[in-house]
Amino acid sequence: MMNKPTSFVLSDILTLRFLLKRKFEFLPMNTTNSHRVTAPPAFEPYYTTVQQFEAIDAVYMNAANKFGWHFIAGVVRQNNGIVNSLFYLKVPGIGLLQAPKLPDTFSVLPKDKVGTFSTNYLTFVPIQAMTLWKVSYRGPMRLLGDSKRKFNVKLEATFKSKLKVFDFDVDMKDNTIIKSISCEPWSISYFKRLKDYHQTHYEQHGELNGSVSIDGVHFDLLLNCMRDHSYGRRDWTLFHRYILHIFTLEDGTKGNVGIVCAPSMFTRLEIGYIYLPNGTLLPLESIDLSFYQHGEAGTPPLDYGFTFKAEGQYSF
Which end of the chain is more exposed for a tag (fewer CB within 10 A), N or C? Predict the structure, then answer.
């Protein structure tokens, strides 16, 4: 199936190292069983901890459109008001803007903001569970590659979706997990490590709709967007790389497919899903993307390609 992408975001994280280690406590979650994520109408479940190292509660949004706009934002909540955050906005005709402190992502919230998905400038607010979030940014940004060029940015937008959430705990194909585990040396400590570092992670595609003012110049925004939410225990030192492809095609097909390398757990884990134009959600079955062929030395390749299948019904 060949369709031109209307939006595309590539995320390749190479050896990220967040070395903060803190003890946390978990707030109660709302679940109807021991696996699937559920929530009451007013909010989504969230962790803050259980006296456990490296606990996080994280929300990310990745959005783009065919006109060249790109939006990447995330807030990772930790204990004692600690947050790690990022925000990038690619503006046609201007370039890639970034939050002023990046690559430093660390900040500590004032007491009145503890427990929220916010930083000094960036805020996510859940309005309706699995359906509607508000996003705002008010503050300075600087141009990547020319830090002296600064802009005053005011962004107000909403993420909306009527699509089903893909819950990685229960919606992945069994065979993709089995294939990854079967390639690792088994031991009691190995399976304990899988259990100890388990995270709940789910994703949902939708639209990011709103406006942004850059030095007083107004722009309307309508972007294809993927929102994800993770909570549990996360130690970035366990990850070597991951490559994800978040896309929307002209016919309405959407998805996120890729591979993860966390050597102490999975040397290669194939993950992802697609939404068909009618909203049907299909889990990834296989993908032939290889790390060694795609930027393993740190430089993105000029030649890029892979194929994947989803639920035996879709190939690309």
Answer: N
